[in-house]
Amino acid sequence: VNTALKLIHHEEEEIVRLLLNYGDYDIGDGMYFGMYLLTQIEDTELKDETCIAIINAYKEAYEEGHLITPSELLKTDNSTIKKLIANSLTEEQEISKNWEAKEIFIKTEIDRLSKITNDTILRFKWRHLKYQIKEVFEKIIKATEEEEIESLMREQMALKKREMEIGKLLG
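Above: the chain's sequence. Below: its structure in token form.
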């Protein structure tokens, strides 16, 4: 598997992790975090089959007016899906309650969810754009007709422009 696809896979898993952990988090006005996240990525074609399956389960549940939970998703027979869910729900570190007693408050992921989400969505889209640019470049190399080459070059320029815009937002 090439490096670009590995990076895309990592970003898609991060989207799934956020969805599994905060999909049912109410962000106000009848909107849930998961709904928001799915609308932000709907214009990007996913590559990883396991991530696609989980994201599609969330989409279907939202369309039916239901909030799906990770425990419902774990009822699958697919061991790859179960493994991704388990890994996504495991916290890397737990903050000691002793800090609160000393009146030292550490921001949790939920406190930083807006920034984490924006950064994740931007990186997700940026990685996918880089992959698309590479695919279009390979098509340009193989193209033989001038009209096709020009069309592909225009497509690549548009993708590169979008890549630069997102790159600026990422910093």
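The chain has a mean pLDDT of 89.
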